[in-house]
Amino acid sequence: MRAVVVANGHISDYDYYKAIMSGADFVICADGAIVHCIALDRLPDLWIGDFDSCNQVNLLSQYPQLKGIKRITLDTHKDVTDTHAACDIAIEQGYANITIIGAIGTRFDHTISNIHLLEYLHAKGVRACIENEYNTITVFDKELKLTKKRKYLSLIPLDSEVVVKNTSGLLYPLENFKLPRQISRGVSNEIIGDSAVVTLEKGVMLAIESND
Predict the structure, then answer these.
(1) CA triplet 154, 6, 36: central angle to 5 degrees?
(2) For residues 51 and 131, what is the distance between their CA atoms, to the nearest angstrom?
(3) Which pLDDT tens digit goes with each residue over 196-207?
(4) Are 3 and 30 in contact (CB under 8 A)?
(5) Backbone angles phi, psi at 122, to 5 degrees
(6) Where is the domain boundary, 73, 104, 133?
(7) Model's pTM, two decimal places?
């Protein structure tokens, strides 16, 4: 069972996301991201937000099909972003596998917040990722097993220091290596072969699979 949360960041190649959406059991749209759902021809099961980034009246008039979508209106003076609230709803609905799309955009503060949202979801035992045309972003501790999907794999510490016990299947292996957050040593590694494993002794790590 997998939920997809659609955030109001940048999406250009809508065809790329159609496979992600078609495999979703539950789709939650955050505020103005409804325009992405319309473009993807996949209306959400739930539309949530304080609706400060879209004009509901105009949208409901232009797209009458939106009137049948369940909506949750949040207070504009809330403590979390619409995307964070959408993820919390997915958890409440019993989803432990969440893909977030539209999470990267021109608002860098929201992009960073969404990356830390992955850390929040990981701490709650949720398997989560941010996905776009060029990146798949996840958070892990202890062990990460990957099947090669993209060209590069970057390992970026979220804690002040992460200790990598060992790796397998990487072009540049690490063993018993202390990786401080300030050091870029983990950027632009590559998976050689079909898969890779990264085992940590200490800390929480951001894993970014990417293409140019």
Answers:
(1) 115
(2) 24
(3) 999 999 999 999
(4) no
(5) -60, -45
(6) 133
(7) 0.93
